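INTERNAL AUDIT FORM
Audit reference: QA-55
Scope: verify that the stored structure record matches its stored sequence.
Auditor: D.O.
Record contents follow.
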Amino acid sequence: MSLRNIAIIAHVDHGKTTLVDQLFRQSGTFRDNQRVEERAMDSNDLEKERGITILAKPTSVEWAPPSGGEPVRINIVDTPGHADFGGEVERILSMVDGVILLVDSSEGAMPQTKFVTGKALKLGLKPIVVVNKIDRSDSRVQEVLDEVFDLFVSLDATDEQLDFPVLYASGRNGYASDNPDAREGTLIPLFEKIVSHVPAPNLDVDAPFSFLVTLLDRDNFLGRILTGRVQSGTVKLNQPIHALDMAGNVIETGRASKIMTFQGLERVPTEEAKAGDIISLAGLTVATVSNTIADPSVTEAIQAQPIDPPTLSMRFAVNDSPLAGREGSKVTSRMIRDRLEREAESNVAIKVTESEDRDSFEVAGRGELQLGVLIETMRREGFELGISRPRVLFGTDENGAKTEPYETVVIDVDDEFSGTVVDKMNQRKAEMTDMRPSGGGKTRITFSAPSRGLIGYHGEFLSDTRGTGIMNRLFERYGPFKGTIEGRKNGVLISNGAGEAQGYALGPLEDRGILFVGHGETLYEGMIIGENAKTDDLEVNPMKAKQLTNFRASGGKDDAIRLTPPKKMTLEQAIAYIDDDEMVEVTPKNIRLRKRHLDPHERKRASRAKAA
């Protein structure tokens, strides 16, 4: 059967996974009466909850042309659209021969589109551009196409790549067409374009077997499952194989105990696979991402794509709060170390280093969302952790001067809020590079901003724009150090003892600021219970109960206390909110904010030492 390998790339929320759903349906992968969830490729819980793709996943459909030609097998890799998970996209591009670039008919080419497209064009992949959601009321198809062309030119595309085919589609409604005015139909034009435009894999089937590992997975029965594309030769069941590292050293020998290809949402066992097939292989215990699996006669490793370095790090520590160990089942540093090492092995964009005290680990990644998803996953597995404020990873230039990461920030905001946003970004040492109206009373503003200034800004941004603003960020470069950037302006309210929060004490504290805890919650000394309205921290007693006596209060002062509901933060909001001397305590059931030093005397000592 003829073969095509393609990746679908797009910015977050532009409709990749929904389009894959329709490709499944119209290729006959699902039975007519089969009940299939929406966005079937988003298979893990976090992806379903957040509505975003986090992991790159291969799948496969078989399509028979209606005219009666021979059927074609199309391997499709669905990729994440958020910049923080860019490492997933970078490495899978070596598995495919073409890409479908999906662009929203209203939003146009966004930062993540630029990042991944640049990588794909450098590898010489031929793009098919699909303008999605053409049935939107605010679509601007021709302008979006001009933006895509300008983007390709700025990314040094070749003449052949600039001569890209265009289709106009609605992934949700399941049609694609050469005509931008079409509002019904099928995806047959897209299947035809894939078959005619994307080349079949041009690889040597007669050479010895070799295969580059791009994705790593675990199975309770099969052990390690290594996924990638067969670069040369044929692999048969139980054939002897060995694994080579980047330098060509043999790290393991074994047998191909299980070979699986992709069929719809399932992995299907097969007897053999040829060059060009995307397969999963089991039988090795040490081999990992970017290793080469090959016939024992092969001694040269396949070169893996270089991955951009991480720009942000957080400290993952053992939870040492007074409430530690009550909710989680995995609380020791050894368990945390093993889990982080497993993560770093399968996710090449994450780096883990152990600190000198051996009770905490520096975890470096692409951004707050990527690390937030890792913490949320660990929390659901039963881990308890203490998390520090994110900090950027500095570098040095050739002259020895300090450099820091910069990001391109694209903000879509209602016209009335644009002044506030520009002012706030200026305070964070960002430079505006572009500002233009994007139609419908909205403005699109582009900034080049140091990553350091953006930590913790997203929540404030949503408040400033009444929840209507959209912010997209993408790593741009390492540039000159921008000096001090002021952080959070408000201090916090700190509990001065341990016990249960009492409504009687919380009522008067509402005048002091915003509370994060409600009546009856368990507190401990040094825990942050709210935000102070002033700039300094304030220690308060939220556990003071009403003295019950047989004296009546004069003038009917015994009114019921009406508390405002406390502000509950999500994990990402908490991580972005804390200051350098604070931590987030993460357990399977709770997210609490606390001071790093719980004892007030230790806090004073630490602040004096810092000032000195």
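Auditor finding: record pair retrieved intact. The chain has a mean pLDDT of 83.
Action required: none
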